[in-house]
Specification:
heterodimer; A: alpha/beta; Rossmann fold; 6-stranded mixed beta sheet; 4-stranded antiparallel beta sheet; 10 strands; globular; disordered N terminus; B: mainly alpha; MetI-like fold; 2 domains; two-stranded antiparallel ribbon; 2 strands
Chain lengths: 269, 289
């Protein structure tokens, strides 16, 4: 990021974008799922992505940490810059990319181990292998992560119980908490509330809102009300293209495109 | 309005017929098992004693016990496991976790399935050619066990691969997304959650290994040795081969002795299966999803 001298061209994304895609195309086999996607996500903002099923929101989200490649038959052209670095570049270590970009899934997916081990999983994977970590430090990391996701008071007496015994809402919060100890810059969330009941949804939305500023958050959602409540910027996608991207308020109050207007009024989707 | 029509009644009739047929099939399946075990217990039961289990045969196999065969079978099984389990688990891990879905992988999968279908006598001939003659192990426990290992490899691979694939993808994604490598994911998440299935496969393999006769006939089993094997280069007696020998080759063997051997062999296999089931129940109790 801190390039010496002015001879090198300024990397894109220097002007405050956490994620910037340029001419991103993506194919699943022969099927093209993304068309020339140009998206800039500002640092420290919450950006939501809305659009009907199959419009490419989740694909775009999963391209941002290259987890999409796990499928094997995926091909991309164009570029994705995260914090100014081309994540498709040659000198990119995927493990470092994924460490800096946490991901939260539709269904909470705590590992079948204790709450404590879940939260410390990434920390032990990355930090504890480089240096000796004292039990006190682990305890501190554990507590601060769980406090950040508003879960500490609920679980502090049962840290060694299996994480899968928690309610779905608590599990989803735990899944966010376990990303924090490795200090990610971005959190990608793929419909993080769709498996939760209304109370759980509200609690997790509240948490997401609280994390803004500290982390750049990109949320895919099916729920327009949620996008409206819990995001600062909003991206509307249709058939693999970005139709509109703007401040959430403006996009919902005065959409510039007729497709956006039709979608947010519920005429299709 | 809601009374049964002729069509309803006909469907009902067909359905009862189908149920009766399937039930009959199931019963037909159980009868031979009961008959086999029953015959063995009735005819071979009287032969079983501590002396039978812990002394070698005497008087041209017509009296005495089966100790060398029991010990020999244990040797064969242990050496075969040492060879096939690491190899099989490693292969299954590669196929399930690393291999891309391409022509080569599909060919390998097909080859494994075919390997499972190769008759055991063919494995025996392969064992003679490869281990006894080419590698110059001679007729020995090592050659016999390696032959058994190759024969049971598909069982281990298939069982392992299936239990690996039973681990939810969500766990792998959770792990990979925290920046774990594939190997870290396998070690910390995939293996701990599939170990019960893998063990089941291994124990199934044990019972198959213990029971096979053909593959060891030319590669390391012998009708009679008075001493217990001391290294993998010794020839050995084995339960399955001893049964074959006392039943068809030796003369004047009392019937109850032959049935006694069969009873002990089937007892060993059942015991191992019971252990496998117990293990699975125990490990499933540890799983929490």
């Amino acid at each position: 990021m801190d390039s010496p001298g002015g001879s090198r061209p300024q990397p894109p994304g220097g002007d405050g974008f956490a994620i910037e895609t340029r001419g991103l195309n993506l194919w699943y086999g022969d099927f093209q799922a993304l068309f020339d996607v140009d998206l800039g996500v500002g640092r420290g903002t919450i950006t939501s992505m809305i659009g009907p099923s199959g419009c490419g929101k989740t694909t775009l989200l999963r391209t941002c940490n290259r987890i999409i490649e796990r499928l094997g038959y995926v091909r991309t052209t164009g570029s994705v810059y995260v914090l100014g670095h081309d994540i498709f570049g040659d000198d990119i270590e995927l493990v470092q990319v994924r460490k800096k970009i946490g991901m939260v899934f539709q269904r909470p997916n705590p590992l079948p181990i204790s709450i404590r081990e879940n939260v410390l999983f990434g920390f032990r994977l990355h930090e504890a292998r480089l240096r000796r970590v004292s039990a006190a430090e682990e305890a501190e990391v554990l507590e601060s992560s769980l406090r950040q996701v508003l879960l500490w008071d609920n679980v502090k007496d049962r840290l060694d119980r299996p994480a899968t015994g928690l309610s779905l809402e608590e599990q989803q919060k735990l899944c966010i908490a376990r990303l924090l100890p490795v200090k990610p810059h971005l959190l990608l969330m793929d419909e993080p509330c769709s498996a939760l009941d209304p109370a759980g949804t509200e609690a997790v939305e509240e948490l997401i809102w609280k994390l803004r500023g500290e982390y750049t958050i990109l949320i895919v959602t099916h729920n327009m009300a949620q996008a409206r409540r819990a995001s600062q910027e909003c991206v509307f996608m249709l058939l693999g293209r970005i139709v509109e991207h703007g401040l959430t308020e403006e996009l919902f109050l005065s959409p510039r495109h007729s497709e956006t207007a039709d979608y947010i009024e519920g005429r299709y989707g | 309005m809601f009374a049964a029509t002729r069509l309803n009644r006909r469907s009902y009739r067909n359905q009862s017929v189908a149920r009766a047929v399937f039930c009959l099939m199931t019963v037909a399946l159980v009868i031979p098992v009961l008959l086999i075990v029953g015959t063995l217990v009735v005819k071979g039961g009287p032969a079983i004693s501590w002396e039978f289990l812990f002394t070698p045969p005497r008087d041209n196999m017509t009296a005495g016990g089966i100790l060398p065969a029991l010990v020999g079978t244990v040797w064969l099984v242990v050496v075969a496991l040492l060879a096939s389990v690491p190899l099989g688990i490693a292969a299954a891990l590669y196929l399930s976790e690393y291999a891309p879905d391409n022509l080569l992988t599909r060919t390998i999968n097909l080859a494994i399935i075919n390997l499972a279908g190769v008759p055991s006598i063919v494995h025996a001939l392969f064992g003679v050619g490869a281990f006894v003659l080419f590698f110059r192990f001679g007729a020995s426990i090592l050659a016999a066990s390696l032959t058994l290992a190759i024969m049971t490899l598909p069982v281990v691979i298939v069982a392992t691969r299936e239990s690996l694939q039973a681990v939810p993808q969500a766990f792998r994604e959770a792990c990979l997304n925290m920046g774990a490598t594939r190997w870290q994911t396998i070690r910390k998440v995939v293996l701990p959650n599939s170990v019960s299935g893998i063990l089941t496969g291994v124990i199934l393999e044990v019972s198959r290994t213990a029971g096979e006769t053909a593959p060891i006939m030319f590669t390391g089993a012998t009708a009679f040795v008075a001493f217990l094997p001391e290294s993998v280069f010794d020839q050995t007696m084995a339960m399955s081969y001893h049964l074959y020998y006392t039943a068809t080759q030796a003369t004047d063997v009392p019937e109850e002795l032959t049935f006694g051997v069969a009873l002990v062999l089937i007892g060993m296999v059942l015991l191992m299966n019971a252990v496998s089931i117990g293990f699975r129940v125990y490990l499933r109790g540890l799983k929490k999803w």
